[in-house]
Amino acid sequence: MRCMSFALENCEKKDGNYTFSDLLRYNFYLPFFFFGPIMTFDRFHVQVNNTQLTRKEREMWNITSKALVHLGVILVVDVFFHYLYILTIPNDMKLVTKLSDWCLAGLAYSNLVYDWVKAAMMFGVINTVATLDHLDPPQPPKCITMLYVFAETHFDRGINDWLCKYVYDYIGGDHNQIFKELLATICTFAITTLWLGPCELVYIWSFFNCFGLNFELWVAKLFSLPPLSTIERVMGEAMSRRIRGLFNAANFWTIVLYNVLALNNLEFAKLVGKRLIFKGFPLSSLSVLLVTYCGVQLVKERERQQALLDDPEPVKPVDGGKEKAE
């Protein structure tokens, strides 16, 4: 994937070509070489050739604290995973069938948390080393608890950036046209399937994730058309937020079920789906949905507040043109 990124960027270069030493330096930079993440060549080349190397205030303190935190998390998780058999329990179907609905839901959720923690630790340690080299590497994956849309579901931001730059965004454009989005997602997941290794489980995983990504666009397009858009404006912002939160809660569990396929097996994913949707209805289904709904609303409120902090509204002039600031 690094060689493909180098070749594509070299084709786009207007003046001359990149050198073979640029390829070697990009491909065999040791922290990224062993475990990733994949940084596209254009970003890597600009950062490596930056001659104005400066440290921000307290940057070394932040790097040291992150390194200590990652070391502590590695030790804690290593102990936990020796006693909490998160990955082996789903393989014992006789045991799994005896578990309650809540245990099954928690086990499925814990599997994704396990994968996120593993990726966050691995990429976090590597990113700490890369930051010492004055690089700005791709960040660790977003926590699974904060995912409620398929567009943000990725456990490797480096691979995600690579796919978006060279396939998904290149074909899909602004991602507003249904057919271009469908073509872009099919091509993206076709490459992802080849990367993961074609097999029945990967085919199913790719199909459902591709469908989920497109289904979000179809629903958004549907609700932007009258009379649904008119009804949403009439019902008010608060009620609209609650209805969207309900859809996002259901979306969260589809993300869990689809990605449990890749981490465990098809039988376990089918069992979780049947117990939560059919056999557990209405008590278990609605209870799990209610808890997830509350979590999604908290996450969305946090994101809204963070957006206000990142992009505050301009201060409006009051009292004859003078500005007040709290």
Automatic annotation (TrEMBL):
<dbReference type="InterPro" id="IPR051085">
    <property type="entry name" value="MB_O-acyltransferase"/>
</dbReference>
<keyword id="KW-0256">Endoplasmic reticulum</keyword>
<feature type="transmembrane region" description="Helical">
    <location>
        <begin position="276"/>
        <end position="296"/>
    </location>
</feature>
<feature type="transmembrane region" description="Helical">
    <location>
        <begin position="178"/>
        <end position="196"/>
    </location>
</feature>
<dbReference type="InterPro" id="IPR004299">
    <property type="entry name" value="MBOAT_fam"/>
</dbReference>
<protein>
    <submittedName>
        <fullName>Uncharacterized protein</fullName>
    </submittedName>
</protein>
<comment type="similarity">
    <text>Belongs to the membrane-bound acyltransferase family. HHAT subfamily.</text>
</comment>
<keyword id="KW-0812">Transmembrane</keyword>
<feature type="transmembrane region" description="Helical">
    <location>
        <begin position="245"/>
        <end position="264"/>
    </location>
</feature>
<feature type="transmembrane region" description="Helical">
    <location>
        <begin position="28"/>
        <end position="46"/>
    </location>
</feature>
<feature type="transmembrane region" description="Helical">
    <location>
        <begin position="67"/>
        <end position="87"/>
    </location>
</feature>
<dbReference type="Pfam" id="PF03062">
    <property type="entry name" value="MBOAT"/>
</dbReference>
<dbReference type="GO" id="GO:0005789">
    <property type="term" value="C:endoplasmic reticulum membrane"/>
</dbReference>
<keyword id="KW-1133">Transmembrane helix</keyword>
<keyword id="KW-0472">Membrane</keyword>
<dbReference type="GO" id="GO:0016746">
    <property type="term" value="F:acyltransferase activity"/>
</dbReference>
